[in-house]
Amino acid sequence: MMTDPDVRVESDNDLDxxxxxxxxxxxxxxxQPYDELGLRHDEYDRIRQILNRRPTxxxxxxxxxxxxEHCSYKSSKVHLRQFSExxxxxxxxxxxxxxxxxxxxxxxRIAVTFKVESHNHPSFVEPYQGAAxxxxxxxxxxxxxxxxxxxxxxxxxxxxxxxxxxARVLPGVVAGIGGYGNCxxxxxxxxxxxxxxxxxxxxxxxxxxxxxLPVDRLQNKAATGPxxxxxxxxxxxxxxxxxxxxxxxxxTFDDDxxxxxxxxxxxxxxxxxxxIEACLxxxxxxxxxxxxxxGGAGLTCALTETAAAAGTGMRxxxxxVPLREPSMTPHEVLASxxxxxxxxxxxxxxxxxxxxxxxxxxxxxxxxxxxxxxxSDGRPGRLQISLNDHLVVDVxxxxxxxxxxxxxxxxxxxxDLILLQADRAExxxxxxxxxxxxxxxxxxxxxxxxxxxTWITEQYDRQVLGNTVLAPPxxxxxxxxxxxxxxxxxxxxxxxxxxxxxxxxxxxxxALAESYRNVAVTGAKPVAVTNCLNFGSPEDPAxxxxxxxxxxGLADGCLELGIPVTGGNVSFxxxxxxxxxxxxxxxxxxxxxxxxxxxxxxxxxxxxIGEGDLIFLLGQTNVELSGSEWAWVTHGHLGGIPPQVxxxxxxxxxxxxxxxxxxxxxxxxxxxxxxxxxxxxxxSCLRNGVGARIALPENLAPASMPFVYLFSESAGxxxxxxxxxxxRAFTGLCAEHGVPWTPIGVTDGQNKALDVxxxxxxxxxxxxxxxxxxxxxxxGGPDPSPAGDGQTAAGQTGGEETAREAIAVEEVAVVxxxxxxxxxxLDQAVARADGADPRPQVPAAAAAAPTAGxxxxxxxxxxxxxxxxxxxxxxxxxxxxxxxxxxxxxxxxTTLAGHESATDAVPDGVDVVAVEAAEPAVxxxxxxxxxxxxxxxxxx
Amino acid sequence: MGARGERxxxxxxxxxxxxxxxxxxxDGDAARAVRLAGGEAVRLWHADAALRGVDAVVLPGGFSYxxxxxxxxxxxxxxxxxxxxxxxxxxxxxxxxxxxxQILCEAHLLPGALTRNQHLHFRNRDxxxxxxxxxxxxxxxxxxxxxxxxxxxxxxxxxxxAAHTLDALEGEGRVVAxxxxxxxxxxxxxxxxxxxxxxxxxxxxxxxEHAVEMLTGPSLDGLAFFTAILKHxxxxxx
Lengths: 940, 238
Description:
The complex is a heterodimer of chains A (940) and B (238).
Chain A: H1 7-10, H2 21-26, H3 41-51, H4 57-66, H5 69-72, H6 77-85, E1 93-95, E2 102-105, E3 110-118, H7 120-125, H8 127-144, E4 148-158, H9 164-184, E5 188-195, E6 204-214, E7 229-234, H10 269-284, E8 290-293, H11 298-310, E9 313-317, H12 330-335, E10 341-346, H13 351-360, E11 365-372, E12 383-387, E13 390-395, H14 397-401, H15 417-422, H16 434-445, H17 454-457, E14 468-470, E15 477-480, E16 488-494, H18 497-502, H19 504-520, E17 525-534, H20 541-561, E18 565-571, E19 575-576, E20 579-580, E21 584-593, E22 614-618, H21 629-635, H22 647-663, E23 668-671, H23 676-688, E24 691-694, H24 705-711, E25 718-722, H25 727-737, E26 741-748, E27 753-756, E28 760-763, H26 764-772, H27 774-780, H28 793-797, H29 799-811, H30 813-816, H31 820-823, H32 825-836, H33 843-853, H34 866-881, H35 886-894, H36 899-923, H37 927-939
Parallel strand pairs in A: 4-5, 9-12, 17-18, 24-27
Antiparallel strand pairs in A: 1-2, 2-3, 3-6, 4-6, 7-10, 7-11, 8-10, 9-11, 12-13, 14-15, 15-16, 16-21, 17-21, 19-20, 22-25, 22-26, 23-25, 24-26, 27-28
Helix pairs in contact in A: 6-20, 8-9, 8-10, 9-10, 10-13, 19-20, 19-22, 22-25, 25-35, 32-33, 33-34, 34-35, 34-36, 36-37
Chain B: E1 15-20, H1 27-37, E2 40-45, E3 56-59, H2 79-89, E4 94-97, H3 99-106, E5 113-115, E6 123-131, E7 147-154, E8 158-160, H4 163-171, E9 175-179, E10 191-195, E11 201-204, H5 223-237
Parallel strand pairs in B: 1-2, 1-3, 3-4, 4-11
Antiparallel strand pairs in B: 5-8, 6-7, 6-9, 9-10, 10-11
Helix pairs in contact in B: 1-5
């Protein structure tokens, strides 16, 4: 324990001692710098009313912090209520909004907890420590729930990739996340990396943590039981992170000599690791009554929230707090955001046990006060803080923790929104011939947002703890949480600021839909949502409108999907001058996998025997290019209306995928989002070095139709690879769930290329070079590590890929021996389809034929009669070709036996697609707008 | 994939200690690997100068004592290490993985040092290694020249030593594994693992304990290190 800070400390100021409660009563008119601390005049008046006197300097600091936007959510509260009000009932939820993190039961014995938070501003000021302490902070939130943290994820957004400051911020942020998370022993299993000039002065560094706990180990923060001891455990308290409160250190408020305190905290992951182990041992020994992490607002927040949660009071002796610098003043101690600290409420009899466990782990633990009873009249107790017997704080804890100001700030739709939405990307010039399409694809995969992020993700440990089943570049992170049963969870976190800028309500829903879909493609069942809402200044009515719309969209979306928001975080004031960032709601979805062995990865694989898997596109492709990556990369364009979002369809898709994964119909599945089908195909091919031959519905419409299929960003879609023999059952399952499906090709392990029939073929090596080159070129510089054994540098960067390929080659030796059987598979399929379908010119229908074909020469069900084969083939062909129309699919299912009705439907479905595609491409003008309403009925 | 089929052959009573230092991270994973190989994992605590009668010891990966000062420099002075150093010199098989390798170098049980990766970044990837020596207690399940796929993840994994030391290591067949198809950290002569003169102490930078299940690793190649020690112990005990 440190020596007591003595009275001399305060004589640095204009006083002979600390500004006590008694002194505050004596000097009611002393001028106080509430406005410098960010408090409004009416807020200051309210503090005086609550206390019935002026606040002491310590109290003023505490109110200023706790009533700040960051801690009080004063601008967002009125909107965030919707998350609770609209939350669908969930029996799984053990703790929700208001707790440190939401807790979700995943089995009778086990629960998980997860939450995402922002650390945006610190990460801009000091990228390494800002990002590092972002991890540290969210990990303690998870720890406070009684959970062992088991994984982290990082959604990151930076300014333009080639901007000089991005080269300062990104490497520091990545190193900070790695430096802290790796040292903590937490696998990093996902996240995002997005570049956009909107984030130039306001990078977004969000951090998500997942924890696991036995159901009966759930902790809470309430400081119950008068007489219980208040213990501060972990690092010593220093002057870091006291930022704005430094103004109080100066006797005269215009003297700024002392004000330049470090405002960014410094992390020590080793101490945090010990803190985790100590806390978990304390939980298991049942020595903790209540616990709260110290994050933003430090002791102030922890003391007031724990007391307020129980309605009790507290007496705290500030001189007992172990300090890094003995000269700290009371308000500095109370405001300090020093990292790696937890506040424990402990029964007096258990104190020795707690201190012993802390000592075992080499963690400092100090009794600093005790819980006191509520007032005799039944009112909650008071928080009284003294320094060497001088009472410096005497407040009702709830007045800081719960009863801060709440504002219904004015909202106004941004003035430019109508014009922005009218400027649609559907009218932009599109690549019109195969060569241009090929160039576009290569340019897209090499663009900063779509290119390979291995340079970043390999700076993170993804394997520690030995339970990582899927990690980047997979769609979702999958973590095994029960080795005995294989029970696990899938997690994804997604956002799209451009979509939200164009339409914050649907933009939030789209973020939710993408995250939900990313979890679903692994085969997991989505069950809960967390969110991090990154916005500009709430004092700007336009920003506030965006915020209100986004929250409404997210709350509505969760209701429609039937999964609750369990917690989250709001980050306002992400703006430079008057320019706010794009509204950026980042949404995390957690899903459950009963057995992680059934998880589905994104990469195409070459079956050890037989021909390539069939590739299906699930969902409906519309002409939706506004807000797309294509519009941004090739035209620098942002305008129009983002893709429509239909959450009923997302739900159906998720249900079909989960069922298909469970029964083993899928060898790969990949969500379609930024960059559309083209990007998904590239990623699925490059993952294991397996090519694909794709046949798009090339003759349906004018030349730009293949382009639309490849680059539209319509929501609710995924590609899947289905091993031969499973296609019939799989498509049947899709029909059951009302999920439109289109067979678009086959995987091809021999031909190392992405081949789009009639358009272009790109070798996987060329694709890989385009895909993996940009990040090292932008941020890595030349790789200085010498190549061993005369290997080239290229051999190094492709090491993992090469490794996986080598395995694949070994496994497909049988196939390699008879390449002829596979080469013309698609042609054969087309040929066979010709016989089964009266409209052979529809390539999508043709590609469906292998399904029927299996009943023919090499069938495994030889007793099927020819009529049924024809009927099924036609039905499959029809459903396949008009995958653009869900209601039609439902019909197909019910009329599967009706050959005529099935074939009749083909031209209808085809025509709809063709017309929609044709108009904007041909007219290149307002007709594009007309195509959109046409989509709406189809989406019902 | 020499590990396959080996599982369960070792005596069921083979007890493999796994040391936990403050800041050890892959200790649970090393214990899992021991179990999957068919051995019994015995957890050892850094502050206890006791080896609890184990037949072999794994020093796991992580950031012992935060890796402050220098990786492994503080762990080397832990009470358990005193006992361990004596036992290792007496022939007790010891495998140091990543941070464990660093500790073994700091403790002078192995020569050379592990320094900051040449590219200055932490790097986590699946890495091909070539097994150069099958004469150690930990690699007898491999065939010489066998290429195996094992994750590497470190910030300070670049093996360096004086030229004469490197020559001696190579001359005496004590280079246990080398990086192939690319060197992930700039290690001299592509060295990924080395052994002491007796072959009972091995330090390896990549993580064999993370290649023991197809569900979570790139291969099962890592399991062979753990079956090897059980085989070695079975041979030693009869």
